[in-house]
Amino acid sequence: QVQLVESGGGLVQPGGSLRLSCAASGSIRLANMGWYRQAPGKQRELVASITSGGTTNYIDSVKGRFTISRDNVKNTVFLQMNSLKPEDTAVYYCNAKIIRALDAWGQGTLVTVSS
Question: How far apart are CA 78 and CA 7, in angstroms?
């Protein structure tokens, strides 16, 4: 079973940048990876995803600002977040999924965007 650990969260001003990392304890080569976030009082939502083949998808609100990438050699997934807005404030979670084989979650890393 793969364990995931997120890092890179913190406090930034509006317009700033953060790079989140998701380190996996095992191979993620065959997994579809996603970054989710949950803001205070809101439901968890999928922000960005990248398939095992490298295809990426983003919710409209982060398109052009966020970039998801993966390094299958280092078993790590990244989320580069630029031009951050207060509405991006949330706990960000990493997910690894293989249908009928794997559905792993990290503990989350807090991103706070505030002046």
Answer: 10
Contact 23, 76 (CB under 8 A): yes
Q: What are the residue ranges in the chain where pLDDT is below 70?
A: none
Name 51's Cβ contacts closer than 8 Å, sequence gap at least 6: 32
Retrieve residue 18's tokens: 């953060």
End-to-end CA distance of the chain: 40
What is the pLDDT at residue 105?
97
**Contact (CB, 8 A) for 77 and 50:** yes
Q: Which two tokens stand for residue 19?
A: 């790079």
Give the model's pLDDT for residue 1: 79
Q: How far is CA 113 from CA 2, 101, 109, in A?
A: 30, 36, 13
